Amino acid sequence: MANTRASDCGTGAHVARGDSFNLYMGHGGSNFGFWAGANGGGSSFQPDITSYDYDSPVSENGDHGFGPGGDKFLAMLEAMRPFAPKGGFPPEPAPLPRHAYGEIKLNKHATVLDNL
Fold first, then answer.
1. Which of 30, 65, 80, 81 could pair with 72 as two cysteines, CB 3.0-4.6 Å apart?
2. Tens digits of per-residue pLDDT, 42-76?
3. 8 Å CB contact between 50 and 35
4. Confidence check: pLDDT of 16 > 90
5. Is the dihedral of CA 66, 67, 71, 74 positive or negative?
6. What percent of the chain has pLDDT over 90?
7. Is 64 helix (H, G, I), strand (E, B) or coil?
8. Are 57 and 76 in contact (CB under 8 A)?
9. What's the mean pLDDT in 13-26?
10. Residue 56 contacts by C-beta under 8 Å, 6 or more apart in sequence?
11. Is 47 helix (H, G, I), strand (E, B) or coil?
12. Distance (Å, rounded) from C-alpha 64 to C-alpha 73?
């Protein structure tokens, strides 16, 4: 289930108890080409889109993920801060530079099934 709120969803409590748990997805990502896969099967084939950050604390481009309650990355960071190594966590990297690439015109198209 996606964490759509700015909540650690109990992560700090799990770490404090020494529980084993999986933080999926901590960071969004991309699948390129035909590596994206699909959901479903039989007659309900649903190809995955390229981006899959699943409402994660860190988005695909490295920005903080936000939910109705605020910044999900900061919520997770604060939940983990009591368990940080001596000296604390390393500083967060600077945001990646952004560029405007202008309009891109696509002149040709092809259907996937006709090209398999």
1. 65
2. 777 777 666 666 678 888 788 888 888 888 889 88
3. no
4. no
5. negative
6. 14
7. strand
8. yes
9. 82
10. 25, 26, 27, 28, 65, 72
11. strand
12. 6
Among residues 76, 75, 79, 77, the alpha carbon closest in space to that of 91 is found at: 77
Q: Which two tokens stand for residue 12?
A: 């700090």
Is-contact 47 38, C-beta < 8 A? yes
Quick one: how far is CA 42 from the chain centroid? 28
Residue partners of 34: CB distance under 8 A and separation at least 6: none
73-96, pLDDT tens digit by residue? 898 898 889 999 999 999 999 988
Strands 46-47 and 70-71, by their bridges, are unpaired
Closest alpha carbon to 75 in 61, 55, 51, 105: 55
Q: Which amino acid type is present at position 106?
A: L
Hunting for tokens 């109705």 — which residue is that? Answer: 68
User: Which tokens go with 108?
Assistant: 């040709």
- Reported residue count of the chain is 116
Six-digit token pair at 112? 């996937």
